Structures are given as C-alpha cells and as structure tokens.
Amino acid sequence: MQTSADRQDRHQYPAHWEADVVLRDGGTARIRPITIDDADRLVSFYEQVSDESKYYRFFAPYPRLSAKDVHRFTHHDFVDRVGLAATIGGEFIATVRYDRIGTDGMPASSPADEAEVAFLVQDAHQGRGVASALLEHIAAVARERGIRRFAAEVLPANTKMIKVFTDAGYTQKRSFEDGVVRLEFDLEPTDRSVAVQRAREQRAEGRSVRRLLAPGSVAVVGVGRAPGGVGRSVLDNIRAAGYAGRLHAVNKAFPEDLKDVDGVPAHRSVRHIDGPVDLAVVAVPADHVPAVVAECGEHGVQGLVVLAAGYAESGPEGRERQRALVRHARTYGMRIIGPNAFGIINTAPDVRLNASLAPEMPRPGRIGIFAQSGAIGIALLSRLHRRGGGVTGVTGVSTFVSAGNRADVSGNDVLQYWYDDPETDVALMYLESIGNPRKFTRLARRTAAAKPLVVVQGTGTTPQGHAVRATRLPHATVSALLRQAGVIRVDTITELVDAGLLLARQPLPAGPRVAILGNSESLGVLTYDRCLAEGLRPVHPVDLTTGATAEDFHRALGQALADDTNDAVVVTAIPAIGEASPGDAELAEALRSAAAAVPGKPVLVVHVELGGLAQALSAAASTAPAAVERAPGTEGGAPSLRATGRVGGSGPAARTEPPEEADGVRVSPPEGSRLIPAYPAAERAVRALAEAVKYGQWRREAVDPGKVPEYEDIDEKGAARLIAELLARGEGLTISDAETCRLLGKYGIHVRRALPAPTPDAAAEAARALGYPVALKATAPHLRHRADLGGVRLDVADEEQLRRTYAELTELFGAPEELRPVVQGMAPRGVDTVVRAVIDPAAGAVLSFGLAGAASQLLGDMAHRLIPVTDREATSLVRSIRTAPLLFGWRGSTPVDTPALEELLLRVSRLVDDHPEVVAVTLEPVVVAPHGASVLGATVRLAPPPARDDLGPRTMPAY
Q1: Which of 413, 478, 415 is nearest to 452 (CA)?
Q2: CA 20 to 30 Å from 814, out of 93, 175, 784, 924?
Q3: 433: Cβ–Cβ under 8 A, 6 or more apart, which residues?
Q4: Do residues 379 and 344 lie in contact, with contact meaning Cβ atoms separated by under 8 Å?
Q5: Could you read off the pLDDT of 230-266 as tens digits, one per residue?
Q6: Is the peptide bond before 885 cis (omega within 30 degrees of 0)?
Q7: H or E stretch at 177
C-alpha cells in the first residue's frame, strides 16, 4: 500500500519541464517528467529495447525490470532524483534520469552539486538525436535544482552514448578504470555547447520543414468528386504543377467502387493508402479535422497542411480548438502548417509541388517567400510572376509557405530551412507578428550573414489567431533591433518586391557612391535628389540627351562601371518614340552587355513609360523557358497567368511562363543572362539600392562583430550571492539605493554617493561629509531628473548657500517629506546621458542609450542593442542617436570621453547577461565629461529568472 509520502513528491509536478522537441530527422517528440503513473509505459518500453541496449545500460544481462526497479524508476522527488521520458503517441521511446550524489558517490541531497546520469533509448529510435535532446533537457533541470556537474559511466563498446556526451560541448574529464569509461562534465553552458545546441536546432528544424516541402507522397483529404471546392482545387493545382511524387485523393464520402479522380488514386481514408504518406493537405471543415489528424498519425504521416479556418482567428473557442489540434498532431510526431493556411509551393524540378490555393505554379527561381497572410502571399506570387506595377526583371520562386495562424511551423522554422537551402538566394517575409522575436533575431542574424533577408513587419497589432508574447518595446524599437540583426526592414509589399528583385540578381554595392546617367536631365536630377534623401553619395548625373543611342548608353554605362569612384549605377530612360519601340530591345541589350563586362557592381534602371524596355530587360535576364504567341484573352486587358511551358521531367505541363506586360506580349529570353531590375519611379529604385547599400555594409561589419570584453574587476560570483540574498525577500523588487550601489559596484559601476537630507541640518552635515561644491536634488518621482522644473540645484558652494537653496526648494515644491531631498557631490561638467537595460518578455535583453532629458523623453532619440553587446556594438550605439554630435564637439564644444561611456555600456551589458535575475537597470543621469563618466543616479529591479531562456534546451512553442 502506498503511503502519502510515496505519492507526494517533495516538489509539485514541474509542468514547465514538459516540452515538444524537433529531432534530428525532422520528426517531433514530447519530453516530460516520469511519474508514478508511468509504470505500465515503462515496462512496455523496456520490453521493446534490445538485449544489447539493456546490457549497455546495466552492464549485465537484464532481460526485465523487477517491481523494485519499476518503483525506483517511476518515483522521483524532482530534486535529487529526476527522470524524463521522450514520448511519441503517448508511449516512451527513451528515458534519462539523474541521481544526486555526494563526494563519496553515494546518494545525497543539496548542497551536493553532482549527479549520476544514465540514458536508455529504444533501438528503433536510435540515431534520431533523442539522447542529445534529452541531455539538453536533463542538464537544464539539473542546473535549476542546483546541480553543476554530471558523471556517467559507460561501457567502452557503447560508442554511441560516449559520442552523445563528448559531442555536447561541455567541459569534460574522461577516465578509464575497471573496464568502464567515466565521464565527468560541468553543466555550465560554454560557447561550444551553445554552438552545438544551436547547430542541432538548425539541422532538426530545417529538416522538419524540408519534409513538408519535399514530400515523396501527398494525400489531399477532402477532395470532391466534382470540380470546384478547396480540396479539389488543391488536387488540381498539384497535378497541374507536375508533382513528381505519389498523389492520392481522400474523401470518406467516396463510393467504395471509386478508383480514381481524374487519374489520381481515390481512397475513403488515409488508412486505406498502400505505402507511406509524407504530407497530408487537410481541406475539410474544422469539426472534421481531429478525425483526419488521428487517421494521418496512425498511418505515419509526417506533416499536415491544414487549410481549414475556424480556429484562433475566430475567437476563444477557436483558439482552444487550435491548441487541441497542435497537441493532437504532436502526439504523433507530426508538424503542422496552418491552420487557416493558404498552402505551400516548391518549384524544384525534382519536386514541383503546388499544394496551395494559388492557381498558377510560379516560375522557378531563387527567391523564397514566407507569408502569414494568404492574401498577401498570392499578391507576392502574382507580382513576381507578372512583374505587376511596372517592376521588371524576371526572377522566380524557390519555395513558398503561407502559414496562416502559424500554430506550429513559423517563420523561424522556415528561416532554419532557407539557411542552408542551396536553391534559395534571397528570402522575402511578410510577418503580421513575430511570435518569438528573440529567436527570430538570432536566426535572422545568422541567415543574413549568408543571404539577404527582406521583411515587411506588421505595425504591432497582433492578428487574431496569432499567439505572441507581449512586448513592452515600441514597434520602432523592435524594427531597429531587427535591422541590427541584418534584416532588410521595409514598409510595404512593393518595397519588398523591389528590394528582392535587386538582391536576387545583382551584386551587393561596395559602398554608397552612385553614378547616374540617362537621356533625361530632369529624371536624372530627381534620382540624384532621392539618393541624397536616402543617405547615398551620388555624383552629378550624366545627361546623354534625348537623342542618345543604344551605343551611347552602352559606352556611358561601361565608363561608369569601370570608374573606381562608383559603387553602383542608376540608368534613367524616357521614351523617344511611343511604347514598345523597336529601340527598346536594342537598348536593353546594350545595357546588359555593358553590365556583363563589369559584373561586380549593381545596375538599376529607372524607366518612364517604357514598357518595352522593361520587358526587354526582363527578357535579357530571364532563365524561364521560352514560350510563344500572345496569351488569349489579354488584348487590352489584364495579363494572363496561363502558360504553355513545362518544367523538367515528363509530368503535366507546369504553369510557368516568361514575363509579360499589360498587352500580353510574351518574349522568349536567352538562357543565363544577367538580370537588370527596372523600376517605374526613381524613389523605388533608389530606396531598393539604399537598402542594398546598408545590407552590404552590415555584411562587411558582420565578418568581425567585435568581442564582449572581460574586466578583471568584475565579481560575478559576489554579485550572484548578493542577488540571491535580495531575492530571498520576495518575488520581484526594486532594490534600495544602497543595495543598488553594492550590486553595481560588483561590476565596476560606481554611483556617485548621495546622502539623504530630510532637514536643513542634515543637508549641511551631508555636504560637509562630501565636500563642497555639492548638488541639492529633489528625488520625488514627479521631480526626479527634472532640472527644468527647478528640482535640481547645482554648484552649491557653501553652507549658507545650501540652507538658502534648501528653503527655496521647500517653499516652491512642498515639505521635505514630499521632496525627498538628497545632497550629492558635484561631478565634472559634461553631457547628461541615460543608460537603460531591460529584459523584454519577447525581444529579450535590450541595452538602450540616449541623451537625458527632452531628447530621449520627448523626441524618443534612443538607440538600442541586443545584449550581450560587443565592443564594436557599444561604439556604434553611442553614435546611433541623432543627438550624438553633442558628444563629439558640436559647434566648438569640448568632446567628451566616449570610450569611458562605451565601457560603462559594456559593463551594464555584462551585468544583465550574466544575471538574468536583473530585469531592469536605469542609470540616469550619466554625466560624460571630457575625462571620465559619472553615474549620478541608478535603479535596479530584480525578479526570479525564467525557468528556461534562449540558452536553455531546444523546445517548440508550448501549447
């Protein structure tokens, strides 16, 4: 009989240890604590483990678990004894446990900080990275419980498990005695362990998306017998794209004798399909989706695209339905795109998948597209397909994902896929919200170092259906942080396409110097003015006159590109004779050949009413297959999306076509030519070029991002002890001035001493202790840092003046109890600044800097960087605010000691990075003098650290 002590753990069940993880092969599993209710699962799991694996675990033949073993392995106190299981479909596939031990190797309790750890992985799931994921999670649990070191004993023949430990990246010791390998390793994350963890995260999440985008077989569930309807439309689109894999149509209402739908095998259930199904496109009403998910999970389907609406976008009931959908799918290890999704597309010739509601397969190319909105997604596809709005220069799409409510697969997952996808050169993203900005900026920084990432971000209003963490940061601040991560941040879909076209086929400019040439002086001047407005450095436009020939353009462009003082060239052109004049093709070829001769610099064209030139430039650059004749039904109307070409293989005709303008004329382009993007307005071309210039500068600087400096006088352990003492008082608190000074002092940040002055006599005594001259300040919230209101009096020279000043303050603002006056020694005169650090629940740790007073409070002139900040980032942070000239001798003033300011910023960054309990720091004012910087006021807020942070184990978003 179990006693209450048996059933009651020393700690409540730690639900925050539960997590869904993506495994090495792209599948998913759930990790959770093992409880006393898992006895049957544990026995069943053990029965499916091979004798060899059992031998490796117990160092002896161990065919079955005894009742005592089962009790031991399912009864944990969640402190000194912890067990975790990886599960799929509710059944165990692997387990890990630790037992705290003392220096003698015997069971122990805190403060002992070492534990023995042991794993067992079902043979069928070995090689999937299950043990590596469990090690990350059990290590995080151990750190949370005060364990700092793991020990493991492994048989030498168990090379797989030895590799799990040695590859983890922790600081290790290894020994061999009595025929056993003993491994000991510290659990404190190292640069290598974090790098290993993130590399595994990237590979796993990238592969999980690849399984969705390149399935070997697809089932469309909800296909109607008659044309029309969502399911039938998707099936038709997949067929029309020439999908290279196996395709199945599923509908439980199909007659039993129905064998196919337009040649596609028909089934009443996914269960009836012979062979594996990698992807199921679910096009049934939301009420029927759970049954379909169960069928797919039992059949071993790897992923779902759920098109159905009626989920979180519809309100609280739908939100709960969405949570249930994700939980249900994850029990089977499946990933979900959607719900409320538009679909996915992969134009790779060996895939050719259009599992979406887009009626046309986009032209194959090098641009990846992610859109949360189906409407925006189809608009992007349409613009890239037809070059709508006058933007020309043909390129195509590699992959397209419209994730709808993105309940599971998000932009972060797709970034992981694009990072090492050889078919994608440029990534375009329309994000209505960012669910995990901290992770997004980390992934974006890494992706942007390899290929351009262009983003249109929502304005901060979260659409229904998107579960996102609340942020306290202004939208502009989040945008600035994204830019610092290398994201090319634009405001509109038009700008997204404009920038994407330039970056997809033109080299990055080496700098901001721009040559302008063309046959219109006024258009050249307009382009010149826009370059100045965008921060570029244009040279005076070269006017070729309206009589310029194609040869004139060729010669001028060649000269401009050969000039080492130019980094990019903008060509402007106006028509000499109506649209589609015969000279357009000749001019396009002249520009193309001149650009090809000097391929290292970008070339853009600004054209006015030159549709023929734009189309000819498209033809000169396209790699699309040739096509013929005018599209039917396009005379005088909108361009048709119908096509006559094929994309590789022998499948059905792919709906691809070369570019066309509003008149529907199609042009057959030469293969492999260089694309020159053309824009119908100077401001659009210049804006795209300016973004490319800034991105190119970011790429060059990203090669050497700087380092986080070490300071010998930092007492990290002393600060940790002090923080623990302070937090013992409560869950979250703003610590006192004295405690603030003590904590900051541990990091070499010294706050100028201020003494309370509740009476004139106390003020005089404080001034004598500090030495004249002094400052008398009111610290009441409504007067703090408000010298403009008269609450701060400086350069008080003696006691007589001090008492007189004290009387003036109390007469103006009220009794000392209300003013809370303090006396502080005078700091050297300089520029008043403010330094802040905050832990934002969405963006993470952010360091901010600006000038104190109206510049930051009224004008919002603050600059921001993600913590930890490197020395180069601290330097750029100081120079990023608009009022930075005041620090560097503006209008004859004395420059201040910015190196001292940068060091202060770095020390604050280190404090917050080292101690996640420090959730807010404000230093105001910080007076930066010609020599040194003085901190005159400081506040610090503490709170218990989050159970998991970005250095914690890999997890999927919780549901």
Answers
A1: 415
A2: 924
A3: 372, 458, 462, 463, 466, 468
A4: no
A5: 999 999 999 999 999 999 999 999 998 899 999 999 9
A6: no
A7: strand 172-177
Max distance between CA atoms of the chain, in angstroms, equals 106
Cα angle 424, 873, 885 (rounded to 5 degrees) comes to 120
What is the Cα–Cα distance from 844 to 867, expressed in whole angstroms?
Answer: 8
Which residues have C-beta within 8 Å of that of residue 838, sequence separation ≥ 6?
Answer: 472, 845, 846, 848, 919, 920, 921
Token code pair at residue 490: 């634009």
Cα–Cα dist 765/759, whole Å:
10
Mean pLDDT within 327-335 = 94
CB within 8 A of 559, min separation 6: which ones?
none
807: amino acid identity, one letter: A
- Ramachandran bin of 247, using left for φ above 0, alpha for ψ from -120 to 50, beta for the remaining angles: beta
Q: Do the Cβ atoms of 249 and 266 come closer than 8 Å? A: yes
Instruction: Return the bridge partners of 938, or none.
Output: 923
Instruction: Give CA separation, 859 vs 210, 855, 881, 885, 890, in Å.
Output: 46, 5, 11, 16, 19
Which residue do the tokens 């076209």 mark?
501
Tell me the backbone φ, ψ of residue 590, rounded to 5 degrees. Answer: -65, -45
Please give the structure tokens belonging to residue 908. 């604050």
26/708 Cα distance (integer angstroms): 34
The 3-class SS string of 737-800 reads: HHHHHHHHHCCCCCECCEEECCCHHHHHHHHHHHCCCEEEEECCCCCCCCHHHCCEEEEECCHH
Return the DSSP state at 312.
G
Strands 831-840 and 821-825: unpaired
Both tokens of 501, joined, read 């076209």
Contact 774, 796 (CB under 8 A): yes
- Rounded CA separation 897/829 (Å): 12
| Cα dihedral 858/859/861/862 (nearest 10) | 40
- Per the listing, tokens 């701060």 go with 792
Q: How many CB atoms lie within 10 A of CB 809?
A: 22
Mean pLDDT of the chain: 86
Using the predicted structure, report yes or no on whether residue 387 has a pLDDT greater than 60: no
Quote the CA–CA distance of 627 and 624 in Å, as a whole number.
Answer: 9
Q: Per-residue pLDDT tens for 522-580?
A: 999 999 999 999 999 999 999 999 889 999 999 999 999 999 999 999 999 987 654 43
Instruction: Provide the 10 A C-beta neighbour count for residue 944.
Output: 12
The residues near 666 (Cβ < 8 Å, ≥ 6 apart) are: 627, 628, 629, 630, 631, 657, 658, 659, 660
> What are the φ and ψ backbone dihedral angles of 521, each rounded to 5 degrees?
-65, -40
**Can you tell me the distance from the alpha carbon of 510 to that of 700, in angstroms, rounded to the nearest whole number?**
9
| pLDDT at position 667 | 35
Q: What angle do CA 519, 677, 658 make, to 5 degrees?
A: 120
Region at 935 (left for phi over 0; alpha for psi -120 to 50; beta for the rest): beta
